[in-house]
Amino acid sequence: MSDPKVFKNFINGQWVESKSGETYENRNPANKDEVVGVFQKSNADDVKDAIEAAKSAYEKWRLVPAPKRGEILYRIASRLTRQKEELSRDMTREMGKILDETRGDTQEAIDMTYYMAGEGRRLFGQTTPSELPNKFNMTVRQPLGVCSFITPWNFPMAIPSWKTMPALICGNTVVIKPATETPLSVVNLARVCEEEGLPPGVFNVVTGAGSALGDPMINNPAVRVVSFTGSTEIGRKISEACATDFKHCCLEMGGKNVQIVMDDARLDLAVDGALWGAFGTTGQRCTATSRIVCHKDVIKEFTERLVERAKSLKVGNGLDESVQMGPCINEGQLQTVLSYIEIGKKEGAKLMTGGERLTGGDYDKGYFVQPTIFGEVNQSMRIWREEIFGPVLGIAVCNSLDEAIEMANDTSYGLSASIYTQDINNAYRAMRDVYTGIFYVNAPTIGAETHLPFGGTKETGNGHREAAMAALDVFSEWKSVYVDFSGSLQRAQIDNA
Ligand code: NAD
């Protein structure tokens, strides 16, 4: 076997080794024998270099006309489109999710890049009348400077793009630390940016461990925006660190998403939705369906049908096109999933299917677990309350829509929810009363599109939204501009009173 490829950091337009002199191996979670690549185990000095490069590039980049910035983004999107298949295959090798899903992940990056390229000719502000004569009022968006991004492993290219593209179109520069488990997709994104003429220093990548790089990524005074997607635990620490010098801080964190199934639901659709929502990406989506609240009159039939379908899912290496569910990301995540399965059993939930690590043959090379469904789950159980981030679904019974809504809201998170019903009144009431950032009717809890705001309430986020025009509010600040052409001093609130 040939030696694995060594990937470097991307700082100031150069591919450079870490000053630590250390590297780490990244292996395929579906096949531990396969080394996907060797990556830089960076240290605080590397981060400092990257931030300095971004700081110095900012002075020119902020003055490039936004439509011209957009033209570079169009070229990046176009190359991502041409390279979609190879990028997606790399992503399946490093992250494990099936090819259909990594193609979707790359497509999200493409969609976001095109969307933000278009914003280069918009970035609209407002004009509004002045209360004084011969005076003109308007608002403009201004960039902030260097943005620091820390991203998770479950959407290796989509999430970095959600942050990077709106930041760049607004005129900011970027330093990103991808998840330790999935650096290759961000390295690939950097290569595309380089090849399509993004100026040196505008986009910088430093790979390595969050524990070592988190502080230097956040505490450097040149950093003005920190955007983080990951666990609530780390997000809280980042929020506290940013507060000291008032850095803008945008957090996208955990979820405990619910699908409501009413007695008038089309059960075929509800089963399709639950299967995809719970077991897509091996349940490792922040929007994954981890709770079902099902009406008592249909719970038996719904559960039987869903269990039947879950049993027949083909689990394996995502590079095999016939596989429907890939592995967990690593041994630690697999052990977390298995421990929650034990907790569910001890708490008295009824194991309907799954519950075991998959072993034997190729399964021994990866981190595979059966799609798992618990019935008779109740609101006091930990498997109801805590994010598992794996293919484990709990089903609880409800007697009415009011009760379903109360149960849906009984969580510290607030990312995504859905309802299956044929009654438009039920749909609208749930849409209004379930307190989440994302809501679906007759569709699963997963499936966000890039031109709608993405994010959640309560412990899922801190009030910001990614994607869509909402992302521009994270990466720009409003400046209100007053132009007085009266030729005299006019005092607001005084001379016109
Ligand atoms: P994580 O919080 O462990 O890691 C996320 C990132 O933070 C990684 O890059 C990691 O290296 C880095 N990190 C780790 N320790 C750090 C520290 N002390 N300081 C700074 N950075 C540090 O999360 P994960 O395991 O990669 O991802 C799973 C979590 O992410 C789940 O809770 C999931 O719900 C959440 N998530 C949320 C969304 C969303 O948009 N809401 C999307 C995807 C994932």
Question: Main traits of this protein?
Answer:
2 domains; Aldehyde Dehydrogenase, Chain A, domain 2; alpha/beta; Aldehyde Dehydrogenase, Chain A, domain 1; 5-stranded parallel beta sheet; 497 residues; 15 helices
Topology:
Elements: E1 9-11, E2 14-16, E3 23-28, E4 31-40, H1 44-61, H2 66-82, H3 84-95, H4 99-119, E5 127-129, E6 135-142, E7 146-150, H5 158-169, E8 173-177, H6 183-195, E9 203-205, H7 210-219, E10 223-229, H8 232-243, E11 248-252, E12 257-261, H9 267-279, E13 289-295, H10 299-311, H11 331-347, E14 350-353, E15 372-375, H12 382-385, E16 392-398, H13 401-408, E17 413-414, E18 416-420, H14 424-433, E19 438-441, E20 457-458, H15 470-475, E21 477-484
Parallel strand pairs: 7-8, 7-10, 8-9, 10-11, 12-13, 12-18, 13-16, 15-16, 18-19
Antiparallel strand pairs: 1-2, 3-4, 5-6, 6-21, 14-15, 17-20
Helix pairs in contact: 1-7, 2-4, 2-6, 3-4, 3-6, 4-5, 9-10
Bound molecules: nicotinamide-adenine-dinucleotide.
Nicotinamide-adenine-dinucleotide binds at residues 150-154, 177, 179-180, 210-211, 214, 229-231, 234, 237-238, 252-255, 286, 387, 389, 415, 460.
